[in-house]
């Protein structure tokens, strides 16, 4: 199927980058940590060679990125660069959006995580791509998602997952992390074989209008990016700057049907063309379950139903 282009750099604002706040998550992702360290060093060296001053902060605890961007004097830097994955990126955006002074500078990424899905949508696959974004200096407003739950609110920049997607992510991150990127494939196959039914009520809305659906589901994805997990093309039409979230819902299906959809999701995203899959764009979504159940935000944050998701259009900036 046809995949729409990534963020259009021609519709952006010039932005000279001479100083960068670099937030480094030393435990992000899995795999060749030596290679990641080398790429980090090369990136810093290349910044220096291009006249870009880097202020480095290594995170040492949960919410460290959030706390840093909540209070850091952003007027001293031209850009924030997050060295990590989607979870680290989410935490950084949440910190900036929570600032009392409402100051916003572009947040870009040095992809060191196991997912790096937001980086992919921004056209960043290596430290060289990140450096190119800094040198080109084009800033663009993009969307985020706000997730209201029983314990407060959180921000998502990638995907909000419930159902088998949540179970897969949890199994991959807690039991199979040692497998690296393969952890998502193995966890997905396991949960397809388990084939658990999940009852829920969904109420997607556009401009305040919509219909409630009450049935057994396999999967719900409310997505800001195109990809999730290990780069799965789960919402192939999603755009970061369209003011909408892409909602993909798969009802409870037999194992073989789910396996086929999973292979399409891993491939070209053709699962959204299946008539049994509901794939729409909305600006608000409610999810309720018979008992309070876990919901995953961007692969690393767990909250509990019921939840309400709203789009925060043009709420932060990236480099394109």
Automatic annotation (TrEMBL):
This is DAGKc domain-containing protein. PROSITE patterns: DAGK. Keywords: ATP-binding, Kinase, Nucleotide-binding, Transferase. PANTHER family: SPHINGOSINE KINASE, SPHINGOSINE KINASE RELATED PROTEIN. Residues 15-151 form the DAGKc domain. InterPro entries: ATP-NAD_kinase_N (IPR017438), Diacylglycerol_kinase_cat_dom (IPR001206), Lipid_Phosphate_FormReg (IPR050187), NAD/diacylglycerol_kinase_sf (IPR016064), YegS/DAGK_C (IPR045540). Pfam families: DAGK_cat, YegS_C. SUPFAM superfamilies: NAD kinase/diacylglycerol kinase-like. GO terms for cellular component: membrane. GO terms for molecular function: ATP binding; lipid kinase activity. It comes from Cymbomonas tetramitiformis. One of its GO terms (biological process) is sphingolipid metabolic process. Gene3D superfamilies: 2.60.200.40, Probable inorganic polyphosphate/atp-NAD kinase, domain 1. It comes from the Eukaryota.
